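Contributing new records

If you add data, match the layout below exactly. Sequence lines come first and carry their own label; structure lines follow with theirs. Keep one chain per record. Anything else will be rejected by the validation script.
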Amino acid sequence: MPRRPSLARIALTMLVALAVSAVAIMLGFWQLHRHQFKADAVAAYDAAAEAPVADLDEVIPPGSDVLPDDAEWRTVTVTGTFEQDTTTILRGRPIDSTAAWQFLAWLDTDDGRSVLVSAGWIEQPGPNEDPELPTYPDGEVTVTGIVRAWEEDDGKEATSSVSRITPSQLEQPAGEMVPGYLMIREACDGGSCAETLAGAQVPLPDISTGPHLSYAVQWWIFAALAPIGAVLLLRRDAEVEGDTTEPAAARAPREPRRSGRGRRAELSDEEIEDAL
């Protein structure tokens, strides 16, 4: 019959199970927070997509030190001249699984503001290739773009290229820096317009909630199953230990019954004489 495990073993097994459950619960809430963050981003993007195209100064007023909450993802227009010698290359940012270079440049407005423009991207050149940097119109150009927030600085030193779109890695512009940058969608110089000023347009990132909510539910189910699994494991161990501690006499195999042929072969002397 099953043998009850020691109290120490029961306590240790249940403690491990509860620790696993606690970690799983925390991971579930982390996934839930990721879902909520992305859901807020999707809601902000949908609201911005429905808003009409506006002037940059309306969406990000002059003197703003931080990007207004409702400014990201808005489509705006701004007119100014490019700083020809401020082209910066953003590296290490694949696009559609392709190693890419993105080109960044400052656009100065007549009212003394400077906004960073993501002007386009090209496939990353090979080690022996000498790519041609983009050239920007010499005069005024009207840029239509989508507002994006600065990225978090990764602490890497920037030279002619950067790894994050953030002020700490960029050359300071001539005018008042606009908080945030624009992903170009159209540039008009005089009577001609183009979707980009270098290569192809940089696509928007994936705007979706992803599988975080389902991952959270999976972690919580795992948290609930961990103690149940511990109880089943203790019961199984008790049954195994009970089988191994059964008395030897109880486990000894029974002597097989002899067949009738064997009994006839073991006749007594008297039976043999009678048979003769």
